[in-house]
Each structure stands twice: as C-alpha cells, then as structure tokens.
Design brief:
This protein is of the alpha/beta class. The protein contains 17 helices and 22 strands. Strands 8-7-6-9-10-11-12 form a seven-stranded parallel β-sheet, sandwiched between helices. It has a six-stranded mixed β-sheet with strand order 14-13-15-16-17-18, with helices on one face.
Length: 525
Amino acid sequence: MTPRVLIADQLSPAAVQIFQSRGVEVDVKTGLSKAELLEIIDQYDGLAVRSATKADKDVITAAKRLKVVGRAGIGVDNIDIPAATAAGVVVMNTPFGNSITTAEHAIAMMFALARQLPAADLSTQAGKWEKNRFMGIELYGKTLGLIGCGNIGGIVADRANGLKMKVIAFDPFLSPERAVEIGVEKVELDQLLARAEVITLHTPLTDKTRNILNAEALAKTRQGVFIINCARGGLVDETALRAGLDSGHIGGAAFDVFAEEPAKANILFGHPNFIATPHLGASTLEAQENVALQVAEQMADYLLTGAVSNALNSPSVTADEAPKLKPFVALAEKLGAFAGQMVDADLKTIEIEFVGEVSKLNVKPMTAAGLAGILRPMLAEINMVSAPSVAKERGITVSESRQELSPVYDSLMRITVTSASGERAFAGTVIGGVPRIVEVKGMELDAPFAAAMLYVNNLDKPGFIGALGALLGDAGINIATFNLGRTAAGGDAIALVGVDQAPAPALLSAVQALPHVKEARALVF
C-alpha cells in the first residue's frame, strides 16, 4: 500500500513536492482541532508538524497506521515521545535546518537593545523626534557571554567576532581546543556572569539548565547587563529578571521565547527596557524551506526504505541488524546515561570498549547510543544520529576499541569518560536480553538498571547499609534492588540502589552527610 502522510501545520510547498516525487501520497490539512485530528489520523502512515499541532498520547493512540512523526524544526515539546515509542512510532526532527536563522535573530535582538530601536521607532513615528532620549551603546569591544556554545552558539560567536566583540562561553561540553578554534574563551558560569556585558542563551531546556539565570545568578551579573534569550523559555527566571529590570541592575532584556507560550501576558511585558518577539527565531523563508525539505526527505526515506535519520527514539540500524543490535544499543544508551549523569563539566574524551561477541557486530549504532546517553543530561534533544557530530563539534575525542576474547562475559561493553575532574569507567553486559551494570570505578557488581536509582560511593564501614536504609525508609522510599561493590574490606565501596521514586534533594543531602560517604547522586534511566 502506498504510504500516506498528513501535513498538519504550515510547511513550505517544497515538502509536498518532495513527498509526491518520491511516490508518497500527501494531504495538507492545517488548523485542525484536536477532535478533527483524532477523527482522521488513523488514515495516515506519517504526520508532519511544526509546533502548533499537538501529537499527544491521544493522537498517537488513535493513529493505528502511524509509523513516523516528523517535526520541521528542533523542539519536540508538542510530541509525546514516550507514547510514540511505546506505539512503535519513530519521532524525527530537523536539528540543524534553522541554526543560522536563530543565531541571526539573537544578533538582531542584541542590536535592538544596544540602539533602543523599537522604542525609537515608536517615538519617531509618533512625531516626537526625541533624538537625545535614545542614547545607545556600541557593541564593538563589548564582552559577549554565551551560555551554550553548540551549533547555534558557535554561529553567534562567529558573528560577534566579526563585530569585534570579546566572546566568552560557558558550556560544559565545549573543549578548550574547540573554543580556540571558534575564537571564544571558555569560562565557568560565575566568571561569565561577572564579566559579560551582554549575555545570550543557546542551550536546550533540561533539568540542569532550567532557570540557569535565576535570582542568585542575575545578582552576580554586571550592572547594566543585557540579557537575550532566543533559545527556550524557562532558561531565565522571568520574575527575577523583571525585578532586575525594575531596579536598574539589568540594563535591558530581549526575549523571543517564554516559559508559557503563546505569551498573551507576561510579567516582563510593558517594561521600557524589554523587547519581545513571538518566537520568531526560525521564521525566515530560508529556514522554513530548509526544515520542510529535510523533514520530507527523512520521512519519505523511512516510509519507503526503513532508513532512519535524526530520530529521537529509534536507533539507526538496518532491518537485518536490528534484532541482534537492539539489546546492546539499549545497554550502550543506559551506560552512557550513567556516565553522563556522573560527569559535571569539561568532558574531554569518551572511550567505548566492545569485548567478546559484541565486538563482532556493527558497533556504530552502539557508539552513537552511548554518546547520546552521555550528552543527553545537558542536551535534551540530542539523538543517536546527531550525537557523534555534536561530540565532534564540541571537540570531544571519541574512540572505539574491540577485543574478541572476553574472560568472564560473552559480551562486555565499557564506557570510560575523562573530564577535568578525572576518569570514570562503567561496564555492562546483556543477560537474557536485559542490560545490566557489572562494573563501576573498577569495582565488580551485578545490578539491573531501574527507572530511578541512588548511587553512593563510600568507605566500606560497618553500619552504612543500615543507616542508608533507615534514611530511605524514613523518607517513605521503597527499595526495589540493592547492589554493592567494593575494592576490599574497609576500602572504597559503592552502592547502587533501585528505588520506586526519585530521591528528593533534601534526602540526597542527608545521604551525602552520612559518615564515610564520598559522593551521592540520584540517577534516572
């Protein structure tokens, strides 16, 4: 049967042409209500959207034929990825189609703030000619601070260097070598806050980046600093920013994105030193053409040949390889997620070892899955396809090694990450088709992965297990699994505890405060 695709949001006509030229039937029906979408979605194999149409759990459940959802753009907040994954629906995005457009919008916002262009325009067209009122500043020689220096941040840095600005960047995944290559000085966040005269954000919204510019951070900035956010709403505490604008500590702010969108009302609106645009970062003819072409090509490839590109929830493997690789891809991603949650900054190298039978397979999808797992805590929208290029872009050295003989397990995979704080290694295997952790910090253990886990590194002293169990019990947290490893009696030890719910920060602090505990972390898989 000929594949059929529904385009539910406004896309460039080029997308329709791509689908038709590849032999895919396509219907364009935009502005559908949820009820209207639910009524017809079971007629389609593919759904192409931008940000307006919500492919939520109800839509996914009703879409009995659906095989792929394609997002013409980066963010997938409007797509229920867990529901799609459970239904076997591939979710794709187009991560690089609007990078230049978004970067240029940030630069435009910077100029608008520096020269007070919106207010000056309104005043002049009102016939006031208030030439002395609108005293601007030059961007030449000013220090620009980038929070996030990936693809878009790197483009902003290039443009800012052309303006002869001094560019500094905070990005835990930016290597010193890459920083030199793109002409930025890598700094810690506190240094950036203290030095930057203009701050612009270019990072995804994750648990680690949410409100990265909160009241405490904003208080550390220079008097009169400009704040620009064309990345994601929620990166800046809008209430705290308004207080900074009111006090005069923040010289001005320009936002294209907001915590709640569409932003019909916002605490920042109305301030004379605030500029707002309605999420226009990707809104240029060129960007819309690029993402439309890209999403149509990707969806057509998948529907016609099974090829997977830029998928957020599916490994890029052939049909023949899939059954063999599936459990090992899952192991790689979970081991990577473990490593990624244990590394806080300055990631330099990643080494992935394949030992035993797994070394004879196609290891590229496993390496990509491992990289995606490592990088995802800071880069929420990363996937197996984009992870290798993102690691390369950020100057992270990635290496693979194979060893056919395995002394203990039929197959073993080990991920070693090196950062400014040292080296950490994590090893796992697949038993009965299920990924397991078998080594952490050189200590042997055998633990299943759980959705929520508690990691504790401590000295092996009597009473520790009882004290930890008592804390969890007092907090009402049930222990599902409890696995231990140690170097020797009385030496370095670790505990991996599968729990029924994630420990709250207060409980984690209490665990950290236990005698002989070196490190405690909450892990999510």
